[in-house]
Amino acid sequence: MKKRGRKPNRGKLTSRASKVVADLKKPIPLKKIAQKYGVSKQALNQFLKTRKIKRPFIPKPDHVTICRLCRQITKVASKPRSEFLALPTVMKQVGFVSFKTRDRREFRDHLRRLRHARMVNPLFGRIIGRHYEGAFQDYFKLRVPVTQIGRRHGIANLLSIIERYKRKGFKLPPPLFKYDAEARRARLRQRMNRGKRAKAR
Fold this sequence. Notes:
The chain has eleven helices and no strands. It is rod-shaped, with a radius of gyration of 31 Å. Among the domains are: 15-51; 63-116, no CATH class. Helix 5 packs across helix 6 (87-94) and helix 5 crosses helix 7 (101-116). With 201 residues, it is mostly helical.
């Protein structure tokens, strides 16, 4: 047996209901309409479903131009190679210094909005550790082996980490230091000769 339910009344609208429909078809926020007629938002949503009324698109205010924090983040992100800055460094440069988890989550929400709006590089703020940031800065500047840079910053497998970040989309140029096989052999020969001389003495 089918349960007999109350069918939605889709007959003639009352004068108040027709006013509500007219307001719902305008780009007015649902909260304001609910306050105007003294009803809840849930009741208005139910009315929209039963009457199959399509709401117009209401554009949200440009959050980036309004929000001071977002403007500061975009300023930091406009610097060259800003995607290689660690998240704590970005927070420090912006002036957002807080150790509370709630505040950090709020900062990440602002950053996510900027990435979604394509106002910053999608890779900006993806590096978490400062030791990775320092290693990348030295990678761009110093003409030393990559393993040596890794040891300096306490990273054992910097080469594999570089490859991992390349797969994520980070554009890393080839290292400034290039191994010269002949020069390396010559250095080894010099060391061996010094050792032989020391033993002969």
